[in-house]
From TrEMBL:
Residues 4-165 form the FAD-binding domain. This is Geranylgeranyl reductase family. Pfam families: FAD_binding_3 (PF01494). InterPro entries: FAD-bd, FAD/NAD-bd_sf, Geranylgeranyl_reductase. The lineage of its organism: Bacteria, Pseudomonadati, Bacteroidota, Bacteroidia, Bacteroidales. It comes from the Bacteria.
C-alpha cells in the first residue's frame, strides 16, 4: 500500500494552497481530484482585497490574470439604488476566471514536487500505527497517510462520511456570457425581499461576463426571471450552470482528518464569498499539520467568524435589514465607506 504524509481530496484553491505550503515545508503530499485540470468551476470569481492580499502572502510575486473592479452598482427590490467608485487600488476587487486560476494554483503545487492523482474518494478508515488513516478510492486503490484533508467542495464526500446528514447548502445558478467588447470595470449586485437570503450578481472577468443568482429557493426559472428584471437577461444559446454554496460549518471530530474551504462550510454567510476562506483554511490546515497542533485550535478564528456571520445573515436578509440598506442607498458615500470596511 502506498504511504504519504498527507492526502488531500480536492484540487481547488483550498486543497492546492494547503498542498503547496506542505510541500514547501518538506511534507510528502498526494492531491486527488476526480476532474482533469483545467476544469470549469461555478463561481463569480471575485477576489476581495483580503483574499488577494492573503494570496500575495502565500505566493509572493504570483502573476495571474484578473479584471480589476473599480465601481459597484446596486439594486434593491428591482430598483436601481446607487453606484459608487472604489477609489483605492488597494480596495479593488479582482475578478478571475476560475478555470484558469485554479489550474495555476495546482501547477504551483506540482512545481513544488507535489503529486497529483486523478481519482474519486470513496471513504477513509482509522487504523492506527505510523500511518493511521487509510483512504480508499472508488477504483479500489488504497493510500495510507498521517493526515487527510477534505477540500472537495460543497458536496464533499469526506464531509458526508463525517456528517452524513449535513446539507449541501443553497443553490447558485450562473451563466457565462461571451462578449465582443472589453471587460467592464463595474460589478452589479441586486437584493430584494423576494429573494430568500440571496442576491443577483454580474461579474465581468477578462474573458466573459458571469451572470448569476443564488437564494434558498433558487430555480432555473426564478434565476431567469430575476436576471431579466435587473436588465441582464440569460442567453438562450449559453448553458445555465448550477452548484451548491454550503451554509453550515462541519467540524471534524478526528484530529487527523480536517475539512477546509467549501467542504468545511466556510463561505461567508452573507456575501457567500468563498475564495478568501479557501485560502485561509487551507493555510491553517497546513500550519496545523506542520506544527502538530490541532486544526480546531489553529482555525479557531475562522469558526468564530462563522458564528458572527450567522447573526449578520439573519439581520441583513431580514425585512428590517433590507429596509435599512435601502435607506442607506440615498447616501452613496456612506455605502462606499461600509463597502470598504466589510469587503
Amino acid at each position: 500500500m502506498k504511504t504519504v504524509d498527507v492526502v488531500i481530496i480536492g484540487a481547488g484553491p483550498a486543497g492546492s494552497v494547503c498542498g503547496y505550503l506542505l510541500q514547501k515545508a518538506g511534507k510528502d503530499c498526494l492531491l486527488i481530484d476526480h476532474a482533469s485540470f483545467p476544469r470549469d468551476k461555478i463561481c463569480g470569481g471575485g477576489l476581495t482585497p483580503k483574499a488577494w492580499q492573503l494570496l500575495d502572502q502565500i505566493y509572493p510575486g504570483l502573476e495571474y490574470a484578473y479584471n480589476p473592479i473599480t465601481r459597484v452598482r446596486t439594486f434593491i427590490d428591482d430598483e436601481f439604488r446607487c453606484e459608487f467608485s472604489i477609489n483605492s487600488p488597494k480596495r479593488y476587487i479582482r475578478i478571475v476566471k476560475r478555470r484558469d486560476f485554479d489550474h495555476l494554483l495546482l501547477q504551483r503545487y506540482v512545481g513544488e514536487g507535489g503529486a497529483f492523482l486523478k481519482g474519486s474518494f470513496a471513504r477513509f478508515d482509522e487504523v492506527g500505527g505510523d500511518y493511521p488513516v487509510v483512504v480508499t478510492l472508488r477504483s479500489g486503490q488504497q493510500i495510507a497517510c498521517k493526515y487527510l484533508v477534505g477540500a472537495d467542495g460543497a458536496t464533499s464526500r469526506v464531509r458526508q462520511q463525517i456528517a452524513p446528514d449535513s446539507p449541501h447548502g443553497m443553490l447558485s445558478f450562473e451563466q457565462y456570457q461571451s462578449r465582443s467588447e472589453a471587460a467592464g470595470d463595474t460589478i452589479t449586485i441586486a437584493m430584494s425581499r423576494d429573494y430568500v437570503h440571496g442576491y443577483f450578481y454580474h461579474f465581468p472577468n477578462q474573458k466573459e461576463d458571469v451572470v448569476g443568482f443564488c437564494d434558498l429557493v433558487a430555480t432555473k426559472q426564478k434565476t431567469s426571471d430575476v436576471c431579466a428584471t435587473i436588465g441582464y437577461p440569460l442567453h438562450d444559446h449559453e448553458r445555465l450552470h448550477g452548484a451548491y454554496i454550503p451554509r453550515n460549518s462541519v467540524v471534524s471530530p478526528f484530529k487527523r482528518v480536517m475539512l477546509v474551504g467549501d467542504a468545511g462550510g466556510f463561505p461567508n454567510r452573507v456575501s457567500y464569498e468563498g475564495l478568501y476562506y479557501a485560502f485561509a483554511t487551507g493555510k491553517n490546515a497546513a500550519e496545523a499539520i506542520i506544527s502538530g497542533r490541532d486544526f480546531r485550535q489553529v482555525n479557531r478564528v475562522m469558526y468564530r467568524k462563522k458564528r458572527k456571520e450567522d447573526f449578520l445573515d439573519r439581520v441583513v436578509y431580514s425585512g428590517g435589514g433590507l429596509a435599512v440598506l435601502k435607506a442607506l442607498m440615498h447616501f452613496p458615500r456612506v455605502v462606499q465607506y461600509l463597502f470598504n470596511v466589510f469587503v
